[in-house]
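Summary for the lay section of the report: proteins are chains of building blocks that fold into shapes. Here we show the chain for PE family protein and then a coded description of the shape we predicted for it.
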Amino acid sequence: MSYVIAAPELLAAASTDLQSIGSSLSRASAAASAPTTELLAAASDEVSAAITAVFSAHARDYQALSAHVAAFHERFVQALTRSGAAYAAAEAVGASSLQGVQQDVLGLINAPTLALLGRPLIGNGADGTTPGAAGGAGGLLYGNGGNGAAGMNPGVAGGAGGAAGLIGNGGIGGAGGAGAAGGAGGHGGWLYGNGGVGGQGGAGIAGLAGFNGANGGAGGAGGAAGLWGSGGAGGAGGTGGTAGDHTGGAGVHGGITAGSGGNGGIGGHGGWLAGDGGAGGHGGAGGDGSSPNRDNYGGVGGVGGNGGAAGLIGSGGAGGNGGSGGPSGGYQGSGGNGGDGGGGGSGGWLYGNGGAGGHGGSGGDAVFSGSLFGGAGGAGGAGGAAGLFGDGGTGGVGGAGGESQYYSSSGGAGGTGGAGGRLIGNGGAGGQGGAAGAPAASASFEIGGAGGNGGAGGIGGWLYGNGGAGGAGGAGGASASATASGGNGGNGGNGGAAQLIGSAGAGGKAGAGGAGGAGGNSGADGASGIAGIGGRLYGGAPLEIFGRPLIGDGADGDPSHPNGYDGGWLYGNGGNGYDNSANAGVAGGSGGSAGLIGNGGFGGAGGAGAAGGTGGAGGWLYGNGGAGGAGGAGLAGFDGGGGGRGGAGGPAGWWGSGGAGGQGGIGGAPGGGKGYAAGNGGNGGGGGAGGWLSGNAGGGGQGGAGGDAPVAPYFAGNGGAGGSGGGAGLLGAGGAGAAGGAGGIGYNGGGHGGHGGNGGYGGWLSGDAGAAGQGGAGGHSNYHGGSGGAGGAGGAAGLFGDGAAGAAGGDGGQTVLYGPSTGGSGGAGGAGGWLVGNGGTGGRGGLGASATSFAGGSGGAGGAGGVGGWLFGAGGGGGAGGAGGATPDPLGNGGNGGNGGNGGAAQAVGDGGDGGTGGSAGTNGGGGNDGVDGLGGVGGAGGLLTGAPGTDG
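The coded shape description reads as follows.
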């Protein structure tokens, strides 16, 4: 039993529980007594009576046993209760004895250090007892410092808190007497412990008649921590004293000022190893002006205390808020200005965020009729800077201006955001500017004041970190008069800059100007803040090192820099060229190029008559080229302006597809005198080359249509040529050539159709050759229809593959009176693969145009077939000649048919291509001659080793 431990409170609880259980059992036994001891027999026979007697006897025995158990339970509960009481009494006696022993032991331990150093080894320091007395120091080994005594009497500062020893918290500083400073908080333990809180400053004494009010006392500084712990918060400043009444007679100005609020105490330093800095104390409010009808002034609010700095690891303390200004006293008086907010403490040297800046105090109101000015709002405190790693603190918000009767007071400026970590961290956001003061409820005339400017954002960390956003400007004050003007809004703060890697901080929004009266002007809105500069390595396009980021997309072009910026060296798409379609005569911007991986930017569209921008190149390793921009339509004029050329598609790098060429612009309409012509359509841009290793080439852009001139005496413009398809690299398809633009419709002469673009060559090892673009149709006219454009040549194959077919020539334009128009020639078929492959078929010649009078037009010649591959491959067949145009004129002649194209030759093994059939002649109108059928093309030669020659057409 020597190791038995008894807890009296547990014994008492157990007794209560057991007593409750006993009561429950007793109630259950009583409830079961009557139903079980007085059973009725089921029948009148002897067996039923005997069974009933047995059960009733058992029930009576149970009741007797329950009575004995209940008595035992009651005695057990009584014994347990007495035991708990006995243990409690014994503990009380023992505790009194042990307490005395404890005090004796501590006395023996503390005696040497008390005699030598005047402080114990273990134990808390004594609190100060007389006004303004400091608290005693805590034990050298362990113990909290004693609290300082309050000053109590006017002018007596509060006592400082006592310092702790090795482990413990510093004592709290005492509050100052009237107008006196609060005591400083005690220092925390050397090893561990928090600093003590600073004491509050005493309120200023009210001024006597004819005298100013006294200033409030400053708050005490927070105590610093030792190795590990948080700094103590600074004490709040005292309120300023009320201004006294002036002693002059009626109409005499007093000029008496209320006392200023006391400044807040600074926060204590955080532990050198770890711990947050203490918060700064709030500034005291300014004192009130005295009675009405006197020009007394409200007191200025106290400045908030700065937050304490951290040591190695920890966050800086927040700055204290500025005190509010006191209200005005009377006629021609003014409210006091608000106090500025305290700055945030710096973060830990290794890691920690900067503390937030304190908010500026609001200006005092001009509350009495005839008061001139409300007080200006105080400025927000700056955010604290971070250490090596961490984010800067947010700037404090500027205080609002006070209400006024005549002149609205300005809002305070927002605080600057703290700098991000020296290595890594984001800059703090700037504080918002304070709003200008509002008109008082009884104001009948007021000029609006200016809103406060927003604070600038903090700079980001050297290696990585975003700049802080600028604070918004405060709103300008509204006017309460029909003739007065509103105040200007505050400017937004500038965004903070990033350094090496990071995004720029956004500029702050401008503050709105205040509303003017019906006969006055509204205040101007403030200027928006300027965005900061992004990282020099990444995040600051287009101002990064070498003009491009390491990773990221290039910026799009703008009016001052139309070309898109290049993408990141390692990864990123090029920016798009600027779209100048709204700017006549100005070419579209070129797309920016990608770096190692990424797509080229798109070329921008050209303005009227100007070329589209070139697409940007794809990434060196992987990425597609950007599409070229469209050319602008020609301007109308004496001679219509030509359409702009489409931009070329950007090439791919090692792996990727080329960009498509841009479309040519439409020619402009004429507007001068006799003989003036519409503008020609712009040529389509060429397609970009495919990747050197793999990737399809881009297609060409379509030629622009010639401008129309449907009324006398103008001539139509010619269609632009279609862009050629780009060539492939090792693997990939060649780009398709685009169709030529149609000739314009003209009264005196139709425009000629544009030539079709050639197909691009297929991949050197494998890949289809690009298809050719069809020639544009000639334009219709009353007198001279335009000729059709020639079809584009089919693309050639690489080492293996078939050449692409040539495209058909465009049909000649219809003529109403005379002047036949011819069909365009068909394009040549592309050559088959250099080693193996068939040549492409030549394109069909365009149809000669029919004429209402005089002769029909001649058909276009068919294109020649492509040559077969060097080792094996058949030559391509020649294209058929176009049919000549018919005429219903009795004296007119039909047009001649076009000649068929020659068949392509085979080389070593393969058949020659068949010659194309000649075009059929056009019929005459009865009195003239029919046209001559075109000649068939010559069949191509067969292979040198084996192969039949082609059949003549």
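Put simply, here is one thing we learned. Confidence is low (pLDDT under 50) at residues 249-253.
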